[in-house]
Design a protein that fits this description.
Length: 279
């Protein structure tokens, strides 16, 4: 445990968030957080609870959203919650209708909802639905959402913050085909549309993150002892991006990870070829 804490401290240097700058930028604003019932979304909502803003929280688990709302409403933020599975066409349409009914629209969209799958290709042969469901929440849902609310963001000179993964910028790795492909798809979509959005006064931030200690990693036993960011740490990164409006955030060591991933990918390819020749 001590060794793990040392690694966490080395890889994830302390990050500070200037609460006064944050309050100045988002006071009176409407902020949408998807995937808000647990993990990063939940911690982000709590980080913003002391600010006089309007938090719009959406997730599948309405009971958890209700608990978060009850806690936050004892503080300064106003909270609206909406239970919806954004992969479901009807529930998405109902949610979009709700958003368009907001008096002043949206100012900030934090795309945080997501699904990760760790599975080999051989174990996926009869599981095509793994690919459709990861694309549904990691790509199609945020695209549909942003296409619908972009007029709000243009009018309010808003901000889109995408909670992404370093895997989207690394060489492809085995066992993560469904996850990496879907997260990369939305990453490319946002970076492709960013110049147009910027020209219309809409800021975009892509937050590239490594492993995070959330319920999503629990099914994979090997992750439990690996260095990982805490949801609260990530929430502070997102809060800071709300006032700095930097285009990207990535860990300080990310460049070394990119180099290593390319090397390992090439090495894996060479190893595979050698094994093939020996047969």
């Amino acid at each position: 445990m001590y060794k793990q804490r040392c690694w966490d401290y080395f890889l994830f240097r302390p990050i500070s968030c200037n609460k006064e700058k944050l309050k100045k930028v988002i006071r009176g604003k409407s902020i949408l957080i998807t995937g808000a019932s647990s993990g990063v979304g939940k911690e982000l909502a709590y980080e913003l609870a002391d600010v006089d803003c309007h938090l719009v929280l959406v997730a599948r688990r309405g009971d958890e959203l209700a608990k978060i709302k009850k806690t936050i409403e004892t503080k300064n933020a106003r909270v609206s919650v909406f239970q919806a599975d954004l992969r479901d066409a009807t529930e998405m349409e109902n949610f979009l209708s709700f958003l368009h009914g907001l008096p002043h629209g949206l100012d900030v969209v934090v795309n945080n909802a997501g699904l990760s799958i760790h599975r080999s290709i051989n174990d996926s042969l009869n599981r095509y639905h793994d690919f459709t469901r990861t694309m549904a929440i990691n790509y199609f849902a945020p695209v549909q959402l942003l296409l619908s609310v972009t007029p709000h963001l243009q009018r309010n000179k808003g901000h889109i913050i995408n909670v992404s993964t370093i895997n989207a910028r690394l060489a492809p790795v085995p066992y993560f085909a469904a996850y990496q492909a879907s997260k990369s798809a939305f990453d490319v979509w946002l970076r492709s549309t960013a110049p147009e959005l910027h020209a219309q006064g809409v800021s975009t931030t892509s937050v590239y993150l490594p492993l995070i200690k959330t319920p999503m990693i629990e099914p994979t036993a090997t992750y439990r002892n690996l260095p990982a960011m805490s949801p609260g740490y990530v929430a502070r990164i997102i809060c800071k991006s709300m006032y700095t409006k930097k285009k990207t955030y990535q860990p300080w060591w990310f460049i070394f990870g990119q180099i290593a991933s390319i090397f390992l990918s090439n090495f894996s390819g060479v190893s595979t070829k050698k094994r093939g020749k020996g047969r």
